[in-house]
Amino acid sequence: MIHYLSERLFRLLLTLFLVLSFAFVILRLSGDPALIIMSPDAPPEAIEAFRKSWGLDAPIWQQYVGYFVNLMQGNFGVSMKDGVPAMQRVLERIPATLAITVPALILQLLIGVPAGVYAALHHNSRVDRFLMGFSIAGHTCPSFVLALLLVLIFSVTLGWLPTGGYGTLQHALLPILTLSLSGAAVLARFTRSAMVEVMGQPYIRTALAKGLSWRQVVFHHALPNAAIPTVTLIGMMVGGLIAGAVVVETVFSWPGEGRLLVTAVASRDLSVVQAILLVVAACMVIANLIVDALYVILDPRLRSGHRRAEA
């Protein structure tokens, strides 16, 4: 198991390095921060002085090497707009993002998994078709459309919730619902497929033939085996939540990482964008590493296979 996880850790760290490298190159090819921050009407001397003070006049390979050298020393750069350390700007926004993404993930699990299991146990019934139809609609609806639809219903028509802002539970409800509904739909479909496949396996029929109750077969045999691919999906959904937060936080004026990323990209605040991508990529790497660990725990074949390999 240790060999398995160390191999996964190496791959995830390599992924993190490649993501940061790709972001570094793309950000510098997408536009000149000096022209955006100082305005194209600024004197050429001032623009050139700005580039020189931030090291933008150096060749891109020198900037690249300097960026990773600074990272190894714990220096994540400084915001070009206000001179505040970039990581400080990012860390200030993390609580706001967690306030909607963590409840959204919990809500996805509470809705998606039971709905998928129930649909699988009532395969091809009206309830199954209704749940899967609803999940397809939730999955295909874009986040910004769903957000605007919820605002139209609960804010404009009913007047129950504010259209945006930050500070109270009422402000957080619509962003949480927007983030959770799409993920719950995907999770319901995936859980149903996994449960239908498991329920058709010979060992399920054998367990029933031995006299085990339906509840014992479902909870002790079907669910643990169906949970193996579902856990992998949950790890991927963490990335989906982070990506969805960019849209949702912008629509609802929620002061989290997603909204900061949009404003930082628009103003070409390179250090802030790179710091956000570093935090986001690290969260996804850690989430996938946890999923790999759970995968080994849930699947005995991986444990036995690695024991034979080590022997």
Summarize the structure.
This protein is mainly α and 311 residues long. It has helices at 2-29, 33-37, 44-53, 60-72, 86-121, 126-140, 143-157, 169-199, 202-209, 214-251, 257-266, 270-298, 300-310. It has two domains: 2-72, no CATH class; 87-310, Orthogonal Bundle (MetI-like fold).
Textual characterization of the structure:
With 311 residues, the protein is mainly α. It has two domains: 71 residues, no CATH class; 224 residues, Orthogonal Bundle (MetI-like fold), CATH 1.10.3720.10. The protein has 13 helices and no strands. It is globular and about 85 Å long. The C terminus is likely disordered.
Radius of gyration of CA atoms, rounded to a whole number: 24 Å
**Name of the CATH architecture of the largest domain:** Orthogonal Bundle
Oligomer: single chain
The string of secondary-structure elements, in order, is HHHHHHHHHHHHH
Unreliably modeled segments? 305-311
CATH superfamily of the largest domain: MetI-like
| Shape assignment | globular
Quote the CATH topology of the largest domain.
MetI-like fold
Name its key features.
311 residues; mainly alpha; MetI-like fold; 13 helices; disordered C terminus
Helices, strands, pairings?
Elements: H1 2-29, H2 33-37, H3 44-53, H4 60-72, H5 86-121, H6 126-140, H7 143-157, H8 169-199, H9 202-209, H10 214-251, H11 257-266, H12 270-298, H13 300-310
